[in-house]
Amino acid sequence: MRVLILGIDGYLGWALAQHLAHRGHEVAGCDNYARRDWVAEVGSQSATPVPRMTERLEAFRQHFGQNLRFHRGTVVDYKFVWNLLRSFRPEAIVHLAEMPSAPYSMIDVDHCVFTHTNNVVGTLNVLYAMHEVCPNAHLVKLGSMGEYGTPNIDIAEGMFEIEYRGRRDRLPFPRQASSWYHQTKVHDSNNISMACRIWGLRSTDVMQGVVYGTRIPAMPEGDDRMLTRFDHDQCFGTAINRFCAQAVTGMALTVYGKGTQQRGFLPLCDSVQCLGIAVEKPPLASEYRVLNQFEEVYSIKDLAEKVRAAATRRGLDVRVAFFENPRAEAASHYYAPDHTKLFELGYVPTRDMDGQIDQMLRDLLPHRGRIAARVHAVAPDIRWDGSRRPSEETS
Hints:
Elements: E1 2-6, H1 11-22, E2 26-31, H2 34-41, H3 53-64, E3 69-72, H4 78-88, E4 92-95, H5 102-105, H6 109-133, E5 138-144, E6 159-164, E7 167-172, H7 180-199, E8 202-208, E9 210-212, H8 239-249, E10 253-256, E11 262-267, H9 268-280, E12 288-293, E13 296-299, H10 300-313, E14 320-323, H11 341-345, H12 353-364, H13 368-372
Parallel strand pairs: 1-2, 1-4, 2-3, 4-5, 5-8, 8-12, 9-11, 10-14
Antiparallel strand pairs: 6-7, 11-13
Helix pairs in contact: 1-9, 4-6, 6-7, 8-10, 8-12, 10-12
């Protein structure tokens, strides 16, 4: 299958390219290296060094025996997207080319507007180009479990049955975003659903939980050029990744509030497995399919304790520190999302969080100097109320 990955230079994109090539697909991708720039802007860098794309492409060819067709450009440029689809004629498009950080989107009005422009306009360009160039292709769009918020009822997998005043219908499950970034994901979901309805496109909207990890099975051993990036700052470092980076440098693990917030998590190897399943098992024409993608639900505090235990087994002295929560989110809440469709499609979860965390610590220890050099970028000083000041440790 010809698969086009938008955002191939990112955390998921580079790993997914290897997973799909390993499974025999012809892979192409595009990127404008924006993720590198955003991380640098907030004063950080990837814990694992990220080579130039020319080096990555040569390594890919050596290990997978095929040229990865790469195009530099942005999905906000419609002509670029149209020409890219016209030249490659993809059968599937995996859209990962969005600004993926809630804190980054909350810095100020400029970052909010940029996030909306980059994410919403980019997705609309992809939809229009598909409609004009390759209407039979399948769009796999990376959404977020954060679109749903934390309602006091079970979270359906995209759609649910509702009865109101004696009448019943099947409608999208209500979205309650809590950041400007997650709000762009809500807009994307609505726009993609409409494009499927009016143009007959087919799409899978993957509501992804928080991803962690450094490796996937298809990643060749011993060649650091094949490693994906690994961010650990307050904007782009997700909870477990951030904790592991802090652990190898002796920093306290930064838990926000009481740490009782609950979220769905899955390792990087399972994330690419799920995206691969979605690519290989497309929906019907005109179908807008939603898949909730996560492995288990944990509280942030429990995750910090897991990382501390794994670090202790490696002889690292690590403590957990609770910081004033800069985000606007419920400290304690009900959280019971459905996630059955991927299992029905053949998803087999790894269910080895402790092993994954230990692997991350092993991979990060050689780079503790790079992480320590950017320690200032970890402190949670971006606040949802619009102010920005140093956070204070509460206990």
